[in-house]
C-alpha cells in the first residue's frame, strides 16, 4: 500500500489530498486547503512550503503528484502559480518524495474520462471513486483528483517496472 499526496498549487489557496493506493483502488486518507492570506508573496510562498511539509510529515506519503502550470490570460498569475508550485515541490523534495507532474487535461481525462471536464464533474467523480459522502472543498477535490491520477499512472507503469524507478544524479535510473 502506497500513500500518495496530490497538490493543487495556488498562491492564495493550495489544495492537498492524500490517498492510499491499495493496488485494487484508492482509499481516502485526508484532504484540505493551505490558505495563505493576503500577505506579501514571499510570506505566502513560505506558508505553502511549510504547509506542504507539515502534510507530508503528518501523513507520510512516499510520492506526490502536482498540477503543471498552464499559461493563463494573466502572465502575473501564472508566474505566482509557478512559484507556489516550486515551494510545494521543494517541500516534497526536502522530505524525500518522488514528484510527478500532470497537466489539468491529463488529470481530467484520468478521473472523468474527458480532458474537458469541468471542476464539478471532477469533484463528483472524486466523490464516487473515493466513496465520499460530503463534497470536499473544490481545491481539495482537485488535489484528490491529482493524487488519483498519479495512482493510475503509477499502476500503469508497474508492469513495465518503472514505478520503482529512482532518480540518481538528475537521471532516471531503472
What's the short version?
The chain is of the alpha/beta class and 174 residues long. It has helices at residues 41-59, 75-94, 104-112, 119-130, 138-157; strands at 2-8, 13-21, 26-35, 63-67, 98-102, 166-168, 171-173. It is globular, with a radius of gyration of 15 Å.
Describe this structure in words.
This protein has 174 residues and is α/β, with parallel strands linked by helices. Helix content is 46%, strand content 24%. It has helices at 41-59, 75-94, 104-112, 119-130, 138-157; strands spanning 2-8, 13-21, 26-35, 63-67, 98-102, 166-168, 171-173. The strands form two sheets. A five-stranded mixed beta sheet has the order 3-2-1-4-5. The protein is globular. The two termini are 21 Å apart. The model is unreliable at 158-174 (pLDDT under 50).
Amino acid at each position: 500500500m502506497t500513500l500518495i499526496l496530490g497538490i493543487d498549487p495556488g498562491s492564495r489557496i493550495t489544495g492537498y489530498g492524500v490517498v492510499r493506493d491499495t493496488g485494487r483502488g484508492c482509499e481516502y486518507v485526508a484532504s484540505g486547503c493551505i490558505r495563505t492570506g493576503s500577505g506579501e508573496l514571499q510570506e505566502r510562498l513560505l506558508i505553502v512550503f511549510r504547509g506542504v511539509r507539515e502534510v507530508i510529515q503528518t501523513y507520510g506519503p512516499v510520492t506526490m503528484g502536482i498540477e503543471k502550470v498552464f499559461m493563463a490570460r494573466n502572465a502575473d498569475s501564472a508566474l505566482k502559480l509557478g512559484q507556489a508550485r516550486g515551494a510545494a515541490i521543494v517541500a516534497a523534495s526536502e522530505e524525500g518524495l518522488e514528484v510527478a507532474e500532470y497537466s489539468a487535461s491529463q488529470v481530467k481525462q484520468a478521473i472523468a474520462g474527458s480532458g474537458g471536464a469541468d471542476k464539478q464533474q471532477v469533484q463528483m467523480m472524486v466523490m464516487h471513486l473515493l466513496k465520499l459522502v460530503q463534497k470536499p472543498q473544490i481545491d481539495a477535490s482537485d488535489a484528490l483528483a491529482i493524487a488519483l491520477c498519479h495512482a493510475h499512472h503509477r499502476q500503469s507503469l508497474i508492469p513495465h517496472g518503472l514505478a520503482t524507478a529512482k532518480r540518481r544524479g538528475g537521471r532516471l535510473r531503472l
